[in-house]
TrEMBL record:
Protein known as: Cytochrome c
SUPFAM superfamilies (alphabetical): Fic-like
Domain annotation Fido: ranges: 194-321
PROSITE patterns: FIDO (PS51459)
Transmembrane spans: none
Amino acid sequence: MSTNNPTPIIIYEDADTAVEVRLDTGRDTVWLRQEQMSELFGRERSVITKHIRNIFKEGELDEKSNVQNLHIAGSDRPVKFYNLDVIISVGYRVKSQQGTRFRQWATRILREHLTKGWTLNQQRFEANARELEAAMTLVRKAAQSPELDTSSGRGLVDILARYAQTFLLLQRYDEGLLTEPAAQAGGRLPSVDEARAALAQLKADLMARGEATDLFARDRGDGLASLLGNLDQSVFGEPAYPSVESKAAHLLYFVIKNHPFADGNKRSAAYLFVGFLHRNGRLLNQQGEPVINDIGLAALTLLVAESDPANKETMIRLIMNMLADHE
């Protein structure tokens, strides 16, 4: 077998011997060159070569599945590496105590890495399960709000169903069965003046219908300017919120939670959220339908408003995954 993929290198030390060992947790084995086996067992390389040749010749092991060719520094051609089965077989043939100690060490190291890998996978599963439960708790809490009407209730059910589907997608991704949903990099935020102009038009329309007062979308200090500035900031030269989905989710969340206006924060947040999606060509999906319809948007806005600040990351991830295209 031939491969160019590097594998992690760890050091085996025994008395005065130190050998670089390539660890392959995917195949539950380790790899050594002939020169390294010579150092490990304290035998001439010619002896190691003879034993390896006989191991394959006598059919004790299959050469094709137990040898791989790797490129290493200082060599202009691939070098043969032999796995743990071959190393152990050579160790038995040279009757080396070093071979026994190495086998015990390799078995322990592989067991440790296997256990750590399982633990990490279990932690990811538990984290996803906790996030799903947190989302369901938020929905149950919001469902008890006096602001919730029948239409918004349907919207919450839709949100929960879509988020449950997202959870399954995320779980499959953690298990290596699904590629990560792509996010759209960038996303142009409105300037403070553009946001205020849009909200002024919304305010005029609502006041004309008797659905708002003069306090609607009135600035409380420099809250709006600070909020938009924070969303557009960079960290070490990279955008703090690098995707359309991330900016949109945080825009909706921060306007609702930070209360930059004297009144109408939820409606202002929803309006700026929709405006941002429209500005960046993400208001409609590939079928020409709204990514989030009016009922869903009202329910989502209420859900954010009712959520505990401790659940911020869950809410942000929920919004982002509702905007992501998993097709």
